[in-house]
Amino acid sequence: MNTENGPRSQTADLAVVSTVGATGFLARLRAHWWLLLVAALLALAVAAVMVLRLGRPSGPTYRVVNVTRGDLNVQVTATGTLQPINQVEVGSEVSGTVESVLVDVNDRVARGQVLARLDTSRLHDQLVQSEAALDAAKAQVAQSQATVTEARLQYSRLTRMATLSQGRVPSKLDLDTAKAALQRAEAALAVARAGVDQAQAAVRSNDTSLAKATIRSPIDGVVLLRSVEPGQTVAASLQAPVLFTLAEDLTQMELDVDVDEADVAQVADAQSATFTVDAWPGRVFPARVKRVSFGSQTKDGVVSYLTVLNVNNADLSLRPGMTATAEIRVAERRNVLLVPNAALRFAPVAPQPAPSSGGFLGRLMPHPPHPISARATSVKGAERPIWVLRNGQPVELVVTTGASDGRFTEITGGALQPGMAVITEAISGAP
After folding, report:
1. How far apart are CA 287 and CA 145, in angstroms?
2. Could you tell me the residue range of the domain that residue 396 belongs to?
3. Are residues 133 and 208 in the same domain?
4. Global pTM?
């Protein structure tokens, strides 16, 4: 009985053990299912990276621009304000009360035209007083002349008596006294004549003050500013107050701009320019450089140089004080070889070397780029390296550069030819 059931019992035991083991394994799998999910996702990510890396081109691709010939205009930009060529501030040299004002803003005036008048009552009285003083001085001269004549006659009579009497009469004292009286009379006459000159100067001064009480225009022009009203008191004791501001000719104006110190070496007299103002959007006005100042000016730490441009304002569309942005043409190049400035800044990088170690993960990790050569930097003078694309590979050429407008640069020397593809930047391979 035991002999017959022995193998069957062992087989059953093994089946029970196997069933128990399988059940435990499944239980463990259910307990750690998230580990399996993470491993599967990691495997998928690694496979995707491998596919992407293997699908990329073996080397970088480049953005290129064909070299062309064209015109190059180099301009310097500056801002400033419009001003009349001749602007005059008219004031008063005498004090008084404004009696009348005869012009207003924007009125056209002629040279010598009356702009305003002051009350002249006090000035007229001063003139009359000085004229009376002149008359008195002239009368004093006449009196002094009579005294001189009398003293001269007395001295002459005594001199003849001394000659006829052979010095016995008159006495020497009487003769000397008569001579001194004549000298005093002559000195008094000189003083009287000086008094006349002084009185005449006072009359002229008062007459001038009376004339200056009438404010007249010194130029032919336009009234830009009026700063006085009838009844206003003008005090000119310390400083002449400004009553009117006149512009001589608004058909010809000046544009005063501040040129930066980095650009002033390129700006010169007689260069052509254009400018725009906010009042006339879309309209471009011509101008020409008149003068570049040698003296500098500093504002907010920026050094600039005042540059004056002549402006034709025949239609009177421009007005003093308008803010303008000017572009001064400092250089013109016709039919020259041009390349983008980005091509002169470009320097390729060497391809990454194949990893020598690291295995699978080493091939997946990115490597830093390596500069292709130190020759990609600027060389001495105006010579610069530039890279052209030949058979899919960058090739270096050394060129001589000229003028630049900020976007394109003139090529004046080197092996670069029209139609060549110059590299402006490297772009990554397609995914």
Report:
1. 72
2. 61-69+337-427
3. yes
4. 0.61
